[in-house]
Fold this sequence. Notes:
This protein is of the alpha/beta class and about 400 residues long. It contains 16 helices and 17 strands.
Amino acid sequence: MSASSLDTLLAGGVRGRRVLVRSDLNVPLRNGAVADDARIRASLPTLKRLTEAGARVIVASHLGRPKGEPKPELSLAPVAAALGEALGRAAAFCGDCVGPQAADAVAKLADGEVLVLENLRFHPGETSNDADFARALAALADDYVNDAFGTAHRAHASTAGVVPLVERTAAGDLLRCEIENLQQIREPEHPFVCLLGGAKVSDKLGALEALAGTADTLCVGGAMAYTFLRALGQATGESLVEADRLEDAHRILKAAEAAGCELLLPVDHVVAEAPEPGPSRVVAEIPDGWLGVDIGPETARTYAAACEDARTIFWNGPMGIFEIEAFAGGTRAVAEGVAASSAASVVGGGDSLAAVHATGVGERITHLSTGGGASLEYVQGIELPGIAALEGKA
Ligand code: ADP
Ligand code: MG
């Protein structure tokens, strides 16, 4: 990545300067409190380095999808409190991200202090990358740091529009770390094994197609496997099949074959009568009236074994409805297979990370990406607008 680094920005001096940091504080909330602070913790290193160097740090983020208007339940206020606690110094909070209220709050900042701005997406100009909104954000700051990897695949005002409007820009430490790790997936050492699962083929079409071209082995699980099986004429019962994606599935199968990639599909399945706790059994062929809720044990062994000899592994998407304990076995076996391998391993996706943590193998995986969608786009070779904007400025 040719974007300027945080090292360079700090070397140039930040004491007394207003530095706008675009972080990814889009954390899950439950009953108004932060339910999982992983993204808060991931954003700390950059914020700490800036405060320790005496910058006046202004943190901006989105939270959820308020669709361009204030939604009290999507306020960043509880996140600001949690961030302050994690930082070990109080973070001030401002009820708007632009305008006079924000300007006043910034003016009150002393060197080394932190201010968290209200949810960027309370303004429609954020996602539309509106020029006036970008100018209003830029007016708060001297310099700008993008550390929001999870939003780097979006050309929004806070990730792209603001960049040419400030004096100096830099990629934060989290953004840099994500790119360095994901670079290994773009240029993998072989054997390169990919595991893709989750709910839909349509969510991950681009990744399936691109990885079929670079992986030595591509293991497909989750609901998306049934669309492939249906395309091949196999029985899928009541499983989640995207009938309008059968041609896409055929194209991916052909692309894999042409590239010499071994595309593996489940050979056995855990089936249930409904996607909820209840009777289930293991079958080789899905009977009428039943749906696939997890890969079967033989498939799980095969996928885990594929990881053994790999030098690079990329995994995105659970192998079954892992939220239900009885249907979590395949996902857990894969998580253990990835962790047991000596390969450089990268896992992305909110649900996949939840599965990794539930299995307790997080520490044995090389990199857990904080951005599901952004990591999928990056590994398929798409230029991320947030990074392109920084590089244009380098
Ligand atoms: P990630 O967040 O890791 O990118 P996705 O959001 O793409 O993963 O997919 C996760 C979802 O896919 C989970 O909610 C899981 O229950 C669902 N899923 C996986 N396998 C199945 C299946 N066989 N049938 C229905 N849903 C499934
Ligand atoms: Mg998900």
